[in-house]
Write a structure and sequence with these properties.
Distance between the termini: 39 Å
Low-confidence stretches: 1-8
Strand content: 35-45%
Radius of gyration: 18 Å
Length: about 220
């Protein structure tokens, strides 16, 4: 069984680095650099479990959901923009990045959302590759870079001028910004000029997540 020493764990893990020796590694499609295993959420983030054994019991009871799907393993990864619901307490959180870690923001909006990072065609269907490592198949066509919001039907939001975005990386991670101007750079990555409450700056578009009408509060 693979363990990860606490002192070498990703810095965003909400753990006491002077405590026990090991923490649980992540599993699933989400990046371990932008996610935490379910056991960390239950034990260090919410405090609903004091031990790994207690976290396993909570998950065995089937009360923890990620984007509407029941989490079945303590190593399943919770990633950026995922919605986490705790059925027993009726709490809902959306996980956001911040400059030096991750934060769980309570929300009344339980719609899941993902950014399209690429697409392929298989027969009459498009296969969309999403930022969380998952794929979505449909006959509907969407643009790369769009945010897909799932709520029975699927609604797409584009990164566009005067629209709002969530910044996914860098020192402004987790902040909500308004897009002032989009820049096409040809062979170089496209960028955008965005404005937060504090400043205006240029950033690569692959670090932006179209907010649409999602309930997201800008990190302080």
């Amino acid at each position: 069984m693979v363990h990860q020493k606490r002192l070498s764990a990703p810095k965003h893990y909400a753990i006491d680095r002077k405590g026990l020796t090991y923490t649980t590694t992540t599993e699933g499609s989400r990046s371990p650099e932008q996610g935490i295993p379910a056991v960390i959420f239950l034990r260090e983030v919410t405090g609903y479990a004091e031990t790994k054994k207690e976290a396993k019991e909570i998950i065995r009871n089937g009360v923890l959901f990620r984007n509407g799907d029941r989490i079945r393993n303590i190593r399943d990864t919770i990633g950026v923009m995922d919605v986490i619901e705790i059925e027993e307490t009726e709490e809902t959180f959306r996980m956001l990045p911040e400059a030096e870690g991750l934060v769980f923001q309570e929300t009344n909006d339980n719609r899941s959302a993902a950014k399209v990072t690429g697409k392929t065609v298989e027969g009459e269907e498009y296969v969309y590759h999403l930022h969380n490592g998952e794929n979505y198949r449909t006959e509907d066509e969407y643009s790369t870079g769009a945010t897909l919001v799932f709520n029975g039907d699927v609604e797409a939001f584009q990164i566009e001028e005067e629209g709002e975005v969530v910044i996914l990386g860098g020192k402004h991670a987790g902040k909500v910004a308004e897009v002032k101007e989009l820049h096409s750079r040809g062979m170089r990555p496209d960028t955008a000029t965005v404005e937060t409450q504090e400043s205006e700056f240029e950033i690569m578009q692959d670090k932006l997540f179209a907010k649409g009408d999602l309930e997201v509060v800008s990190n302080e």
